[in-house]
Design goal:
- This protein has 16 helices and 17 strands.
- With 588 residues, it is an alpha/beta fold.
- The chain has 4 domains: 9-73; 83-195, PAS domain (Beta-Lactamase, 2-Layer Sandwich); 277-438, 2-Layer Sandwich (Heat Shock Protein 90); 464-583, 3-Layer(aba) Sandwich (Rossmann fold), CATH 3.40.50.
- The strands form 3 sheets. Strands 6, 7, 8, 9, 10, 11 and 12 form a 7-stranded mixed β-sheet that branches.
- A hairpin with an 8-residue loop joins strand 3 and strand 4.
- The chain is elongated.
């Protein structure tokens, strides 16, 4: 059966269908709007969560900043409270915001609450009534106006301090990060404590100098007798000693001079440390310096069966301008060090002049030995004061650990440099350079030759007055002078010397010890210079005082020269010859 539909849809049905389509369209539109709203809600929710996280982060940062601020304030408070300085902090209204414990203690204030919110004027009025604050107040106003730190030195009578102390007061404007003033700091630094510390250090240094001076004197006095007696028993005027006894005497003299070198090292180190050792520039013969080196070590080299070779080029300026004493001291120390650590073979000194330049010449000195050598670690410590390369070295080889330090200091004082190369079991080489000025009296033919000791003999000379309290040193000096052909009279102290000078004897020269009982040599010399009769009488200090300034004290007292013990027979002969020749007519 075939169904047939009507070809036309009724109106009311058609209208219903239109309404349904319209509703469906509205539903679709609403669904789209709902989706848009959901997206916005999700975006808003995300923004809310972000804002919450941001607020939480800001809160955490603020809390951290607050904690750091509190910690910083606590640290500042601790710093202020534990500072030895007196510190006061004032806010922008000039009222006290903090006072250090040092201030509370200095003013006998039990608690800071008693002075909170006080102005600096009130504080000074209440707790420092005797302090003139006008000058300080003027500077405070200047500091506030200029934003500059100002300072003032003032003696302040703090009631909590037993004495008035000198303070330096710092007036410090406190600025914020924008450069605006937010307060003021007053800091009182006690200069009296610094002065007391300086005085304490000065007393310690004085005690050190006094100890060194006493040690030097007490060692030099018997050392003078020891070396003097050893020189006397080996003098050519006496019958020659048997070979064994002569060997003993030479070894004893060598040991005594080694002890003297150690003493001189200690004194020189103290001078260099204090910045009171200077080098001089005088004309000298390098020939004489080298001769001194050879003569000094001749006995020691023989006793150890070592060789000392000195290589000098054919053309080397014989006369230079420099400090021969310090140059000899450096060479003596370095060669002595090489001898100490060398058991067989020898030591070589090479002298290497460089090309002269603008009136100066650099000379390199190279000291090489065949000794035990050193490791790299030992080399790194050789110029450290009081240091030995190994703890066993002190027991086996001895020494103070000062010799090389002094060499380095002296070389640098002379404008040069020093270095060392060494290999264990092979040997050591010390190399140092010194700049000298060329002398106008330049002689290029340098020959090393040992000359005999020349002692001048005096004739027809008035007696020498020897003023010395030590009997052994009286004997040594008397025998030396008698070797020169001089007559000697002895006084045991300054008072006795004055009595003898007031007597009938005319003396040609006075040798004066400094440290004696009854009357010392300085006082005695001043008394001598008061006597018109003896205004031109040469007075020579012959003393164990060898510290900085001792020579100047002697000359200031009226002495003509200063001879340090132990006395060398040649030095004594030279100085007596110098002053008698300048004062009297005599024959030699």
């Amino acid at each position: 059966m075939i169904l047939q539909f009507p070809t036309k849809i009724p109106y009311h049905s058609r209208q219903a269908m239109i309404n349904i389509d319209s509703q469906n369209s509205e539903i679709v539109k609403l669904q789209q709007e709902i989706r848009v709203l959901k997206r916005k809600i999700r975006a808003l929710d995300s923004q809310v969560q972000h804002n919450k996280a941001t607020l939480a982060a800001k809160s955490a940062v603020n809390n951290l900043a607050e904690a750091q601020k509190e910690k910083a304030e606590r640290n500042i408070s601790l710093l202020l409270d534990n500072s030895p300085d007196i510190i006061l902090l004032f806010d922008s209204d000039e009222r006290l915001s903090h006072a250090s414990r040092a201030f509370l203690k200095a003013c006998n204030i039990e608690h800071i609450g008693l002075i909170n919110a006080h102005t600096y004027g009130q504080i000074f009025d209440d707790f420092l009534p005797f302090f003139d604050k006008k000058e300080l107040h003027t500077l405070i106003l200047q500091s506030i106006k200029s934003n500059k730190i100002l300072q003032l030195n003032k003696i302040i009578p703090f009631p909590g301090h037993p004495q008035k102390n000198l303070y330096i007061i710092y007036i410090i404007p406190m600025l914020n990060c924008n450069g605006l003033q937010q307060g003021l700091m007053l800091l009182f630094h006690d200069l009296s404590e610094m002065a007391r510390a300086r005085d304490k250090a000065e007393k310690a240094n004085n005690a050190k100098r006094e100890f060194l001076a006493n040690m030097s004197h007490e060692i030099r006095t018997p050392m003078n007798a020891i070396l003097g007696m050893l020189q006397l028993i080996q003098s050519p005027e006496l019958p020659p000693l048997p070979t064994i006894q002569a060997d003993y005497a030479q070894k004893a003299e060598l040991s005594a001079r080694t002890l003297l070198r150690i003493l001189n090292d200690i004194l020189d180190f103290s001078k260099i440390e204090a910045g009171q050792l200077d080098v001089e520039t005088i004309e000298f013969s390098l020939d004489n310096v080298i001769k001194q080196i050879k003569d000094t070590f001749e006995l020691e080299m023989k006793s150890k069966n070592l060789t000392l070779t000195i290589n000098v080029p054919n053309f080397l300026p014989k006369t230079l301008m420099g400090d021969p004493l310090r140059l000899a001291q450096i060479l003596l120390n370095l060669i002595n060090n090489s001898i100490k650590f060398t058991e067989k073979g020898g030591i070589t000194l090479n002298i290497e002049p460089q090309v002269p330049n603008k009136g100066q010449i650099e000379i390199i000195f190279r000291i090489t030995d065949t000794g035990i050598g050193m490791t790299e670690k030992q080399l790194s410590r050789i110029f450290i004061p009081f240091n030995q390369t190994d703890s066993s070295i002190t027991r086996r080889f001895g020494g103070t650990g000062l010799g090389l330090t002094i060499c380095q200091m002296l070389v640098r004082l002379m404008g040069g440099d020093i270095k060392c190369h060494s290999k264990p079991g092979v040997g050591t080489t010390f190399i140092f350079s010194v700049n000298f000025q060329l002398s106008q009296n330049d002689d290029c033919s340098l020959q090393i030759s040992k000359q005999p000791l020349i002692i001048h003999k005096f004739k027809d000379v008035n007696p020498i007055l020897l003023v010395e309290d030590n009997e052994l040193n009286q004997l040594v000096a008397t025998r030396f002078l008698e070797r020169f052909g001089l007559t000697v009279e002895v006084a045991g102290n300054g008072l006795e010397a004055l009595r003898m000078l007031d007597g009938p004897t005319q003396y040609s020269l006075v040798l004066m010890d400094l440290q004696m009982p009854m009357m010392d040599g300085i006082t005695a010399t001043r008394e001598i210079r008061k006597r018109e009769r003896y205004n031109s009488l040469p007075v020579i200090a012959m003393t164990a005082h060898a510290m900085i300034g001792d020579r100047e004290k002697s000359l200031k007292a009226g002495m003509n020269d200063h001879l340090v013990k132990p006395i060398d027979v040649k030095n004594l002969n030279d100085i007596v010859l110098k002053w008698i020749r300048n004062n009297d007519d005599f024959s030699i």
